[in-house]
Amino acid sequence: MAFQKIIRVFSFITIILILSCACDYKNDSYGNFDEIIVIADSNLYLNVRPQVEQIFDRYIYTPHVERSFLLNYQTYERLGIFQMRRNLLFLAILDGEDAVSKYISNALSEEVKNAIRSGRIFQIFHRDFFASDQMAIILCAENLSDLKDKMKNQADAIYTELEDYHFERLSKIMFLRAEQKLLEEYFANTMGWEMRIQHDYFVAQESSDKNFVWLRRLKPDRSLFVFRQKASALPDGEEWLINLRDSITTQYFEGDSVEISDTYIQRINFNERPALKMVGVWQNHKLLVGGPFRTFALHDPNKNYVYLIDFQVTAPGKRKKPFLDQLEVMARSFRIRG
Questions:
Q1: Tens digit of pLDDT for each residue in 71-95?
Q2: Does the predicted model carry a pTM greater than 0.85?
Q3: 3.40.640.10, 3.90.70.10, 3.40.50.300, 3.40.1000.10: CATH of 181-336
């Protein structure tokens, strides 16, 4: 794992990249942020498609089923058409006879190929491969069985690496225009926390004790709220988080409630703090509306506050994950002052 990190951090100094242009300047990548162009031999892809889908094609309930990333398979012959897309995935067998495997094998140094043979390297992430703001992922193993096993065993690590870059790239695009610096400064000075706020969001409600603020953006309807309450630690178990969110949304959102059967809670690291992340579906049975939400819960031991950063989307008939991801970029920028 440490060797893989060194490879990533130093942008694969030992890897020989075959690029169409040797100059430093590269045109911008384009296309959907959550689309992955899969480049592989057709027979190889047929064999490993279940493992690829296990990694990238995860279900998200909104409450309709959506995919975390959209897979778009293409043959090697069409690489020139799709090489400027934002996400590329190459699947290869070291010393394989198909065109993609030969391409990848020729692109790697002997040092890296030996590391693949010994099992020290499997997943290679390279930024700006053909274009700027592009991520190319190379999954290469010595044989088909090894490729399948490593994809299965390293699925979460591969997914997390791409997801983190996905949010980093979204952040770069989102705040190019009209970031609300004055509103950010107001929250920092009056509430003791910082968060980047995209254009067009407005304060829909704010409590007099400065413990709750609701940000909203319309067309489609997006909401993000920050709530805090005194607590010496994050409570044990997980039911408290569902109950606390329900109590807040009952008070401020006319009775929204968590659909427990479509919701799960993870223990995560949030900006170097232990935290909980709740992902699920909310419903308002009175208003007959609903949609997806995500909640981060974390504790500040310096001031003994528990914070909830929560966001949700109402967008009937539209794909909701892109809006959720933009809200998550804002939520991930949350920092406690002092």
A1: 999 999 999 999 999 999 999 999 9
A2: yes
A3: 3.40.1000.10
